[in-house]
Fold this protein.
Amino acid sequence: MNEIIYQSIKTKELTLDRREAANRLRVPRDFDMSVADEYKTQLESVIDCKMAAARVPVERFGDKMLMGEIETDSKDLERCLGDSREVFIFAVTLGSSVDRLLLKYSRISPAGAFMADAVANAYAEAAADRVQEILDGIEKTKNRFSPGYGDLPLEIQPKILEAVNAGKLLGVTLTDSLLMKPQKTITAVAGINRE
Amino acid sequence: MKKDIRELIREKRIFLDGGTGTVLQSMGLSVGVAPESWNLTNPEKVEALHRAYFEAGSNIVCTNTFGVNSMKYENYEEYIAAAISAAKAATDGKDDRYVAFDMGPTGKLLSPLGDLSFERAVEIFSDNARLAKKYGADLVLIETMNDSYETKAALLAVKECTDLPVFVTNVYDATMKTMTGSSPEAMIALLEGMGADAVGMNCSLGPDKMIPIMERFSLYSSLPVIVKPNAGLPVTRNGVTGYDIDAVGFAGYMEKLCRMGASIVGGCCGTTPEYIRKTAERVKDIPFVCPEKKNKTLISSYTHTVTVGDDPVLIGERINPTGKKKVKEALRENDLSYLLSEAVGQAEKGAHILDVNVGLPDIDEAAMMVSCVKEIQAVTDLPLQIDTTNKEALGAALRIYNGKALINSVNGEEESMKKVFPLAKKYGGAVIALTMDENGIPETAEERVAVAEKIIAAAKEYGIDKKEIIVDPLALTVSSNKDSAKITLETIKRLRKKGIYTSLGVSNISFGLPERDKINSAFFTEALKCGLNMAIMNPYSDAMMDSYHAFRVLEGLDEGCRDYIAYANSAKKPEIATVQKEITLRGAIASGMVKEAGEVAEKLLSDTAPTAVIDEHIIPALSEVGRAFEEGRAFLPQLLMSAESATRAFDAVKEKLPKGSAEKGSVILATVKGDIHDIGKNIVKVLLESYGFKVIDLGRDVAPEKVLEKAKATGCRLIGLSALMTTTVPAMEETIALIHRELPEAKVIVGGAVLTPEYAESIKADKYCKDAMEAVAYAKEFYREERS
């Protein structure tokens, strides 16, 4: 069985990247973001961040790659992994209370819904950054790559979640159209640097 | 003969089994292969596993069916039959060995957070429950449930399809909540209410971490408590993953848990027959204590409970069409946004429970009640009081309600009790009982108490405990009978003496009088002093909230006067009216001051014609912000805040205009089937509304047929579709094709992150809108052409 690294991440360990938040809010970097402060505060009070990661070997067969039990022919992922012989597969979620908050705003305030969603997305990225910091403490990692980007299809999501036992450990499930729930969840593959 | 397990769990401590998957792996099951596959390929090994547990001391083993359901496997019956057969074989026909059918979660999240509907979940669990019965399981164990709503669906299915005993365990994390936020008390209230036979916790934590959760179960549960922990936390030693608590350590903690009252014990991930053996040996001398009945009246939502008792409970009364024009209109037009803002507003004002009444003569009350309850539960976690005299509406609402509701109401009439009690029994729920019957409302306190006692006795016949009945002694207006307050107060006192809880619709006392709050608040204080436990009231009324907070301080219910001080400080904020003079409507809209925009508009309307407010204030302000947005001087958050402000101002204007005359035309909006992102759609919605278009919002995950049906029913021929995922764009294409085929004159506009103008063209959309402003421009154009 793969070793699974599973832990909670405190909200104060998440560093919101100003540029990321500005991008998500579709405002310039020097924009006065106090307009979103209310949503940021509320999100911080409900984020329950948890991660699960597995370290698996990568094998390459012609056009295909095998990462643990997961087979893929994604060229973009292959490029991102470079010469790594091992990868971390991970999932990190902000938890379902964030979904509850977003659901509430979607019903009562479209402006609030947009801003809360934007800030939550920025927090999800911050969570993924934090996971990589934690993993870097084990083995130095390269840039992460997520399903849905480039030619790595969302169809790989069930296998990724299974590899880190995300259903049981994080409560992450998939909808029929392969969206993750809780919705502020990120899965990714990060190559491990060879010494 | 085999004793019913329901009797046995009240006579002695019962041992469950331990882990299944982890033990099967040690017997050769490969990682990544589903444990249930062995039911068909290696049934003898599954049987051996069960036998090992029985021999270690388990009284009950759980079938190897955790991951089996009709959604995952077409041949689920084969799996289930084989699993039950293996477990039964391991009993060797002994009467003291029981087989529990193991029912795990579906692996999907239920709506509104996920895409599995509640009724679909009930169906999936029902498929399993019927087979559990058919193949002879002795009971059902619903386990490892992360979500209260899914737990309810499973329990309902077992209850509806079988007469088997049913145990239920949930997963709690170190914060003592389930993944979707339920406290142990909330789960206990829900499960006891629906008639589970035993409740408890399993998985996720080791036995040490379950001790604080057990503390709460022992305080609240009247049912035997199940504890089935993991063997601690997963650890890796020499490259092998195991758990950090061994069988002896495990047994030590289990002893402590048993002393705290756990009476059905076993293990979960990482535990083996050895863990059960050691536990059984360790606790054999600890005397068994049957859990005592807790006299707590609990109402719950999906997160928490409200306990009825000395500390008064406030039930917000605002979601009720009686005498409220806005609510009536909102219900008739199926526009729930007003009701939702009332729900959020009352919660912010400090209501503990919200009353939901949607009774209007000309609407489908059951359907409306269901959508209101669902939507209100999406915006607030307060427990709800289902307020209806319509049996169908009550049943439908209690069924889909996520928690244990308060039912308003039953009365002493035979007919009423026949209608309400079976539903309260089936779905759980505390019931408000009005002290009236076939003979009307008694004139004396003595007679009202007699009616209350009659109702409590009748409830008992239905298996509903006295603690679940909260009596409303009825307040009748003092304007028609000078003694009516005195009678009500006397009734409260008498009921209190008998240990019966009371609730009161306080404001009825002043019906027909001016300045009603003055009377209501004084009466409220008197009623509280007589022992009133719950009040149906208006949380926006300062006088009522003053009475409530002052009472709690004076009765020593507000530790350190903390709640009062917070309340008093929040009430001190400067009145908006004083600031308001400076703000113009254009200014409020341009700077996105939502609340102020509504207020300034209302003021402006006192001396300005409604059409002038639109043409000279709202539209110019919006145009200014729209222009700034297009020129890159303003950004999306500002645009949205302005649009929301304009919508609020528009709402004020609409009230002054003949119905419908302010509307420029309607637009149907939907996020397509399979897609549950609705941010983009909501942005378009608020902008369209701010420009005066009526938006018929079908929400997210909307099937093509539903869009068509709505277009046909409303006559609206402008449809906006949104999709955010590459996986859901085909559903968009399908919807467009259906609309164009059935309604060739209709236009479909599309937008969403994954779309491009070329792609939109390829799926035959009439217009691709790159942002919400483009959608507004198109809608204006569409209706201009239609008119000319």
About this structure: Chain A touches chain B through 48 residues (CB under 8 Å). The mean pLDDT of chain A is 92.
